[in-house]
């Protein structure tokens, strides 16, 4: 009876894990059900089988380290709780500790993979989950509607559902930001980061084998996956995957020299032509896809409208400084961060909306977030977890790493990617991450290998092994330390900037070059030297005459509840005095726009044109006063009943064709350039 119970338990646990692998690219809710079944059917086996208890000893350190992070967040919250009754209600709903149960799947998946008879089945299901994820990504690349929402609505589009982000055109075909069945492109990017590196390395290992239809199918799947990841534009995952592949290459996990055969001259010529075709295609896509242009250009820009990470980090660091040892506590990050943001708004009121829509649910950096909520020791445990993962990887020679570990090696991409996004706080990524960790570590422990290489996680370093230990230690230190070092080298200069230096008003226009030119010519400070600044642009008259809409200011003032603004909206247009080709007129339309957070509500902001005026521009400063756009209401809470007053501007009557001298705009602090606001 006992033996029958164990066998049935093993079958059920394997079956549940396989169903999880099929479901996580499709639905987080369904995958959580199968993860729960995996946990419920695996842990009882510890009581009945000694070998499972032995396997538990090998994985328990990984489990306990991450559990320690959650416990520190809980302890910090308990210490700082004012009342324990509402505390537990808030803590369970908002705290990182709510992810604790997901951690249980890490040992469970490890115990299942440790049974060699299960490994071939799991490998097939890993490929099946990759096929599902990539196929859904390909469908969403061409789908205007969000697939997940479409399916949940009974395979129909419900009015009001937010559509996909338009990406660009491929000839007559419209392309969209691929998100599979997930809610955000970052979540789907995280899943691709888990899946694609393993597919690539496994493909390299099979390069010299006989080429059959299965190999070419895998090649097509791999190519489609990388195309989807490219269009997905999760730049943090791009970075994480690149770092992982560099680490794998240096470790010798895949070798170009060993895996690539000698090619004939004809094959080399065909490969060269193929590479040229890919290069030309990439150039075409870059020129015709504004989202890709924006994603790549912003990697090298300090000042851009995607500057929310600056505000997140800028207001997280004071939390760490004030709560270094115990953190602010689980579930308290959002409120604590808003208190710091409020101080910034009091100094620069024009940042109110920008800081309001800045996500405050987490720190957009896994390490930074765990330190903020659990204190410095939570950060140490987090780095220790990754250290042990890398150490386990480097302890194995490349030829000793099994195919299951190769297929799940994508877990390492989330280390570097996690410095720019909290992937390990996203349920849709965290749950498969823990499963992949268990499979990866279980695959490293290969019973078919000689016993001297089997002891992956135990510290059995003798004197004769010290040189090997030193080499592994240095590799692990580099893999963990260098991404952390480069991250801070990248961010420290940016965090030293003042908040207003980073802020840019949003500009919309049909021409991307016009958008960049307008943003470059919006002044943040008024100066007597403005007219001596450079007004040159690379725009021609046709481009410069196109209308562009500049983000204006709010109809109400801080704090919350908001109070109505009493001073009329105004701004200034500076026209160079000695220029040869400037506009003589400007047509300005005042636009009323909603101020709710459309990224949070998945709803587009509405707009209404209020009035249009036409002004004559003279050389020097031109004051534009808008007297009729105030709103005398008293909303109960921001942003309800609060609107933007944007400005759609067209420059008219340029003196001649050719390059133009583009005017500069100055909005003052809160669109009060002509009549300054008083506090």
From TrEMBL:
It holds the Pfam family Wzy_C. GO terms for molecular function: ligase activity. InterPro entries: O-antigen_ligase-rel_domated, WaaL-like. Its main location: membrane. It is a multi-pass membrane protein. It is found in: Membrane. The chain crosses the membrane at residues 59-79, 125-143, 175-201, 213-231, 237-256, 268-286, 367-389, 401-423, 429-444, 472-491. Residues 221-383 form the O-antigen ligase-related domain. The keyword Chloroplast does not apply. It comes from the Bacteria. GO terms for cellular component: membrane. Keywords: Ligase, Membrane, Transmembrane, Transmembrane helix. This is Ligase. It comes from Leptospira tipperaryensis.
